[in-house]
Amino acid sequence: MSNWEILWQARDEFLIGFWRTLEIFGLSIAGAFLIGCGLLYLLEGSRKRLTMPLRIFIDAMRMLPFLILVYLLYYGLPSVGIRLDAWWTGVGALAVYHGTYFAEIFRSNRLTFPPGQIEAAKAHGFTKSKMFFRLILPQVIMQTRPLLGNQLIYALKDTAFLVIITVRELTAVANSLSSTYFIPTEAFIVVIGFYWALSVAMEIIIKQCGRFSAKRGFDNV
Amino acid sequence: MNASAWQMLLEGAWTTVWISAVSIAIGVLAGLVIALIRLARIPIVDQLLVLYISVARATPLVTLALFIFLSAPDLGLDFNRSVAGILALTLNTTAFNAEIWRSAFRNFSREQREAAMATGMTPWITFRRIMLPQMVITSLPGLINEMSFLIKGSPAIAVIGIVDLTRVTNRISAVTYEPLPPILVAGALYMMVIGCLIWLQRIFERRANRLAM
């Protein structure tokens, strides 16, 4: 029996691993997106005292490796009495870590926002939250979509770090298969193929979003 | 934490820094070479390089490190851990650096190249005297950004057993049963290294802006 046949018989394990990676990735980027939008809203807000700590928090996160954050949550939190399981630690860490990156991307785009629109909205009597959700957020999201796409690919790649805290995802499946049947080369080629297909699919989706946003006139600023 | 824990942390930091530095040095040069080869548009080589860049950008570092370390004996190669780690980091960063260099090439002003040609410079001299110095300055902010991504990704090599700054925290907490302090110190050390890079990046960005390129 050739090595590839062994892998074909273990296809269920690959699919389970792929599904778990997708699950972690989907949940965590949804969380990250919400955190990013929330941070942008807080930075937008009138409370000046909040701005400085938030900026420091965002910059600190951007200077830390992802794995250190995971270690902090997985090994560090139990010593202050909070115990999370590996899976939720992974999802939470990914969401917080990439949420701050999203916030930074949004913030840098928000700086180049034409002030005339804000003034016009204020003159029309928009409330703060309405202005944020109807005016600022949609434009910021559509204009930053190439950067967001890049960040999504980074987030996908960071899911592989979770193998170190024993989450059973795609890389962990390849690792365990390669030690069971001793076929590391083939197992990892298959897994790299999965990751590659996923990121190519994401790039295509981001490009399609570009069409939509060109049609809606988000790009001609 | 006692003195030996601090010493272990610093040794881990040193491991992280030297492995990253070697990969960065190789990666920046290899990226330049790949960008140059891609400019030549040699039929099959070009497609292969595009495939390499696309796959390497999508592959997680952890997966790549495990792949190289575990499958090297299968392919008849004999690496030690450090070489496998450096190879994984280099393969990853080269793909990103090649794209940065290539965009610097594409955005290089045509007038200057035509002027160099008109004054009778050979392509090699044009490249070395005119293009390279300017391209280095324009692409340095991008390259340094990629360097800090590499350092942030470098804990991936812990998975093949290299005792780097992240892994060493496990070793210390296995002795002291207090995981929080070493992890916090390791985080601070990472922040210092990456903070230095960000500071360098700001300087080069300012210089690039001043030269109006």
From TrEMBL, chain A:
Residues 18-206 form the ABC transmembrane type-1 domain. Keywords: Amino-acid transport, Cell membrane, Membrane, Transmembrane, Transmembrane helix, Transport. GO terms for molecular function: transmembrane transporter activity. It holds the Pfam family BPD_transp_1. It comes from the Bacteria. GO terms for biological process: amino acid transport. Its main location: membrane. The chain crosses the membrane at residues 24-44, 56-74, 86-103, 187-206. Gene3D superfamilies: MetI-like (1.10.3720.10). One of its GO terms (cellular component) is ATP-binding cassette (ABC) transporter complex. It is a multi-pass membrane protein. PROSITE patterns: ABC_TM1. It is found in: Cell inner membrane; Cell membrane. PANTHER family: L-CYSTINE TRANSPORT SYSTEM PERMEASE PROTEIN TCYL, MEMBRANE COMPONENT OF AMINO ACID ABC TRANSPORTER. Belongs to the binding-protein-dependent transport system permease family. HisMQ subfamily. This is Amino acid ABC transporter membrane protein 2 (PAAT family). It comes from Chromohalobacter marismortui. The lineage of its organism: Bacteria, Pseudomonadati, Pseudomonadota, Gammaproteobacteria, Oceanospirillales.
UniProtKB/TrEMBL annotation, chain B:
It holds the Pfam family BPD_transp_1. InterPro entries: AA_ABC_transptr_permease_3TM (IPR010065), ArtM/GltK/GlnP/TcyL/YhdX-like (IPR043429), MetI-like (IPR000515), MetI-like_sf (IPR035906). It is a multi-pass membrane protein. Keywords: Amino-acid transport, Cell membrane, Membrane, Transmembrane, Transmembrane helix, Transport. It comes from the Bacteria. Signal peptide: none annotated. GO terms for cellular component: ATP-binding cassette (ABC) transporter complex. The chain crosses the membrane at residues 12-37, 49-70, 82-101, 180-200. One of its GO terms (molecular function) is L-cystine transmembrane transporter activity. Residues 13-202 form the ABC transmembrane type-1 domain. It is found in: Cell inner membrane; Cell membrane. Belongs to the binding-protein-dependent transport system permease family. HisMQ subfamily. This is Amino acid ABC transporter membrane protein 1 (PAAT family). It comes from Chromohalobacter marismortui.
